[in-house]
Amino acid sequence: MLKIYPDQRWPAFLRVLADTVTFFWTVAWAYLGFLIYQTIMGLEVIADGIKNTGLTFNQWIAAFRKAVPGGIPILTKFLQDAADALKHYSGDSLISTGQNIHDAILKTAIVLALLVALPPILLVLVPYTGWRWRDMRETGAALAFVRIAAMTGRADAARAVLAYRAVSTLSFRALMRASADPVGDLVEHRYERLATAMLKRAGLDPARLPPPELPELPPHRGG
Fold first, then answer.
1. CA–CA separation, 47 vs 100, rounded Å?
2. pTM (2 decimals)?
3. For the chain, what are the domain ranges?
4. What does the pLDDT look like over 193-222, one tens digit per residue?
5. Half-sphere exposure of 4 toward its Cβ, with a 13 Å CA cutoff?
6. C-alpha 103: how far from its chain's center?
7. How far apart are CA 93 and CA 10, in angstroms?
8. Residue bearing the bigger pLDDT, 57 or 214
9. Are 92 and 53 in contact (CB under 8 A)?
10. What's the CA gap between 144 and 78, in Å, rounded?
11. b/e string for 122-159 if b means 16 or more Cβ within 10 A?
């Protein structure tokens, strides 16, 4: 069972604030990485220019080959060889170079964007997400404990368990704030204050647990 936020306003507010800050931290660094990606990808116009230049050369060479006159053996062969030489040393090489530069720019943009955005995001998101997951599970388990005790009519026994747990887990400062005599409370079965402190520590409203049952008074005998 998970409970996202505690019952008390101040702890709930602090968690909402922390969730909001973490969210905007993640969005801000992701956006910065996206801006870096876009900036570097702006260099692809250079690669596209080189590639388009090669395509233009190929178009010129193709037009030149079509314009080569036929029927003149020596001249035709010479002009066709010249066209092939031009294509080999200009058009195809420029297209290949432009494509290689385009791929290199794309890879560089992705790598730099990830290197800038991922470390700060993971540095905050991983430990915070782990802590929030444990916190939600712990609060949800405490809520399930209280609900079962209330439904089964064992609120007093649950209060005793909470009081002993408060003594064993709370710091001495928190323990003494909850009760001026924690040991005496346990010995005298006064579990209310310690159980209340433990429920608040778990992020729950103490009112979720039904109030302790009052002892039955002996019947009054008239004189």
1. 8
2. 0.71
3. 1-134, 154-205
4. 999 999 998 888 888 888 766 555 455 554
5. 4
6. 30
7. 68
8. 57
9. no
10. 92
11. eeebeebeeeeeebbeebbebbebbeebeeeeebbebb
